[in-house]
């Protein structure tokens, strides 16, 4: 007699054939999570940190940075604000702030120390203030003896120029026009006055920093920085005509890299990391550099000192990661920042290696450039108020 299997029933072999692929996928997923350190992530609470910052929000809005932080179960919610507002508004609802410049950072830490409040400073990276322009304008300045190419391996034609800041400001002071410098020799005509477009000085750290740089360069035989309110106001009045501002901070560099940028703002204030990141992306997308857009490095240099200030324990956890996490530091380098070591010095040649690997010329800054100091916050605020036409900031009692 033959025993037949009931129709519609499943054999052990059929069951294995059905379930094994799914089981293999589950095990592969578990192994991947374990290797990446994310095995328990779905079961652990993600901590949302509230942060307030200006231009450095670009770092925290980067998708790779967000992914790295999520591995550490951290998500950052950003409130955008100018660096002045970061320093001068109530911070009770925030876990950390990230002002783009040292004066605002010093004001925050000083006031919190006075009031016995939590504040721990982290300085993970820096980025020099530069002037971004186009080749025709840089070469015109070169022909007038105002700019000179900086050495950079693989940079032909040059991407980076040193700018004699005093000569450049003299051209602006005298109302010189681009056509008077014979820009026509480089294939374009521009009858407008020579100006540098900066963001609104009343809300932007880069514009405030550029104001300090202009003031330092144009001071004549006066002190490097003003030491009284009256000196600050007088200094600001003497350089007000050298400043051209108006675009929101977020729009200045976007305008520069847009197709219309050359006709709207041929010279703009920017951070070095913005330009380097742009060139890295351009190289990746089009397999070539954008040799039309170049940088001018002022002979009076001012390296901005962005400070991540933790306002409580949660913010301190983020600050420690910014200082020590290899992935975050690598990503900061990839975004064009100059990483700092624990002593506050630029950490070796990380940025140089990264740029070289991607066939981006490395800017070799001149050693003989003057380091421009920034005025104390009280006097810088007076200068900003005069130049920007905005109400003076109401500094807390006891502010420096």
Describe the structure.
It is globular, with a radius of gyration of 26 Å. The chain contains 16 helices and 16 strands. Helix 9 (229-239) packs parallel to helix 16 (377-388). The chain is an alpha/beta fold and 400 residues long. The chain folds into two domains: 41-126 and 305-357, Periplasmic binding protein-like II (D-Maltodextrin-Binding Protein, domain 2, 3-Layer(aba) Sandwich); 127-302 and 368-388, D-Maltodextrin-Binding Protein, domain 2 (3-Layer(aba) Sandwich), CATH 3.40.190. The strands form four sheets. Strands 5, 6, 7, 10, 11, 13 and 15 form a seven-stranded mixed β-sheet that branches. A five-stranded mixed β-sheet has the order 2-1-3-14-4, sandwiched between helices.
Care to give the gist of this entry?
This protein has 400 residues and is α/β, with parallel strands linked by helices. 42% of the residues lie in helices and 16% in strands. The model has no long low-confidence stretch (mean pLDDT 84).
Ordered list of secondary-structure elements with their pairings:
Blueprint: H1 12-36, E1 47-53, H2 57-61, H3 63-71, E2 74-80, H4 83-88, E3 96-98, H5 102-114, E4 120-122, E5 125-134, H6 135-143, E6 147-149, E7 160-163, H7 165-173, E8 197-199, H8 205-217, H9 229-239, E9 244-247, H10 249-257, H11 261-264, E10 268-271, H12 272-286, E11 293-298, E12 300-301, E13 303-304, E14 308-310, H13 313-324, H14 326-334, E15 338-339, H15 350-357, E16 370-371, H16 377-388
């Amino acid at each position: 007699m033959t025993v037949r299997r009931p129709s519609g029933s499943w054999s052990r072999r059929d069951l294995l054939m059905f379930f094994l692929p799914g089981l293999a996928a589950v095990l592969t997923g578990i192994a991947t999570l374990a290797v990446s350190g994310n095995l328990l992530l779905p079961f652990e609470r993600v901590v949302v940190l509230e942060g307030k910052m200006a231009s450095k929000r670009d770092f925290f809005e980067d998708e790779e940075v967000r992914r790295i932080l999520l591995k550490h179960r951290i998500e950052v919610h950003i409130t955008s604000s100018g660096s002045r507002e970061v320093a001068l508004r109530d911070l009770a609802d925030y876990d950390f702030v990230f002002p783009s410049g040292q004066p605002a950072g010093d004001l925050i830490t000083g006031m919190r120390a006075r009031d016995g409040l939590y504040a721990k400073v982290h300085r993970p990276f820096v980025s020099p203030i530069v002037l971004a322009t186009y080749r025709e304008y840089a070469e015109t300045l070169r022909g007038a003896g105002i700019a000179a190419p900086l050495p950079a391996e693989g940079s032909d034609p040059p991407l980076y120029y040193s700018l004699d800041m005093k000569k450049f400001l003299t051209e602006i002071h005298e109302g010189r026009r681009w056509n008077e410098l014979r820009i026509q020799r480089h294939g374009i005509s521009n009858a407008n006055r020579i100006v540098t477009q900066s963001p609104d000085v009343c809300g932007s750290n880069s514009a405030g920093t550029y104001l300090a740089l202009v003031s330092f360069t144009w001071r004549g035989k006066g002190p490097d920085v003003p030491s009284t309110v009256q000196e600050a106001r007088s200094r600001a009045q003497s350089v007000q005509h050298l400043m051209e501002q108006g675009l929101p901070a977020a729009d200045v560099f976007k305008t520069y890299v847009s197709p219309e940028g050359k006709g709207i703002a041929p010279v703009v204030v920017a951070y070095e990391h913005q330009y380097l990141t742009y060139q890295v992306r351009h190289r990746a997308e089009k397999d070539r550099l954008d040799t039309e857009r170049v940088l001018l490095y002022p002979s009076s240099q001012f390296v901005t000192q962005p400070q991540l200030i933790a306002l409580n324990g949660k913010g301190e956890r983020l600050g420690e990661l910014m200082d020590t996490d290899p992935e975050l530091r690598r990503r900061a380098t990839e975004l064009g920042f100059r990483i700092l070591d624990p002593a506050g010095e630029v950490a070796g040649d990380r940025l140089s290696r990264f740029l070289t690997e991607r066939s981006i010329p490395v800017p070799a800054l001149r050693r003989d450039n003057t380091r421009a100091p920034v005025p104390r916050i009280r006097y810088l605020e007076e200068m900003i108020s005069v130049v920007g036409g905005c109400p003076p900031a109401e500094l807390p009692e006891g502010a420096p």
